[in-house]
């Protein structure tokens, strides 16, 4: 049952046009553009510094924005209510969606990695395994935030809010530019946002071959716990 539910959820994500735009087309376009156009003071090859931020963007796009919108409209059309009345246990429904999101993030990571390698990316090999762990953690954290938004608000509000948050975190959350290049206090604030924390942790392991540090990991865990605990109390099936 879990395998079947995971397969269905994965196909629904992959076949959705807007999801494809968020999960692959925009991240690939930004990866190529930010690696080839000289914006900001980045060491060469620029792709080494750009890739961790694009990976964080891909995770945010799939686990937060995509899941929030999908959940909001699933509630609108009674999908969750009908599925909860079937023989599928609730844990299967939740686990299937989580595993599907992780599979899509894995697909994103592979496609982006191939593109980055063609652009001259040379990651620290010792950081690949910790990087995978950070991607999983980031997916769970952003997924909890997506459930929080998509599980409590009207679909129209979810659509606007999820896209607005995506855009804000792209520009001011340490993704379009490194946190150090952001003006004024934005550089400090970015480190306490889940996007900036994930990008900083990925940069540490993939670029500097170092441990991600306590702060970004604790920031991610804090966001995950708060969003998850709140989502449990506020999420409605309809």
Walk me through what this model shows.
With 238 residues, this protein is mostly helical. The protein has helices at 2-15, 17-36, 46-76, 79-84, 90-118, 128-150, 155-172, 186-190, 194-206, 214-234. The protein contains 10 helices and no strands. The radius of gyration is 18 Å and the shape is globular. The model has no long low-confidence stretch (mean pLDDT 90).
What is the mean predicted local confidence, pLDDT?
90
Radius of gyration: 18 Å
Which runs of at least 5 residues are low in confidence (pLDDT < 50)?
none
Alpha carbon gap, first and last residue: 23 Å
Number of helices: 10
SSE run: HHHHHHHHHH
Shape: globular
Give the class from helix and strand content and strand pairing. mainly alpha
Percent of residues in helices comes to: over 70%
Number of strands: 0
Largest sheet entry: none
Strand content: under 5%
């Amino acid at each position: 049952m879990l395998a079947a539910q995971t397969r269905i959820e994965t196909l629904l994500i992959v076949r959705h046009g807007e999801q494809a735009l968020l999960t692959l087309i925009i991240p690939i376009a930004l990866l190529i553009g930010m690696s080839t156009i000289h914006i900001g003071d980045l060491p060469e090859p620029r792709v080494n510094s750009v890739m961790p931020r694009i990976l964080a963007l891909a995770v945010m796009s799939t686990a937060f924005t995509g899941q929030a919108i999908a959940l909001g409209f699933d509630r609108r059309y009674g999908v969750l209510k009908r599925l909860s009345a079937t023989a599928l246990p609730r844990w299967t429904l939740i686990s299937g969606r989580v595993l599907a999101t992780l599979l899509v993030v894995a697909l994103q990571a592979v496609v982006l990695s191939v593109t980055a390698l063609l652009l001259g990316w040379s990651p620290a090999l010792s950081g690949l395994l910790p990087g995978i762990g950070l991607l999983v953690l980031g997916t769970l954290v952003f997924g909890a935030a997506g459930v929080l938004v998509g599980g409590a608000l009207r679909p129209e509000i979810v659509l606007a809010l999820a896209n607005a948050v995506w855009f804000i975190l792209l520009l001011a959350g340490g993704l379009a530019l490194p946190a150090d290049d952001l003006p004024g206090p934005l550089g400090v604030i970015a480190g306490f946002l889940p996007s900036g924390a994930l990008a900083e942790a990925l940069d540490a392991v993939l670029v500097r071959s170092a441990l991600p540090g306590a702060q970004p990991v604790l920031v991610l865990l804090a966001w995950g716990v708060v969003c998850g605990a709140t989502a449990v109390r506020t999420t409605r099936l309809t």
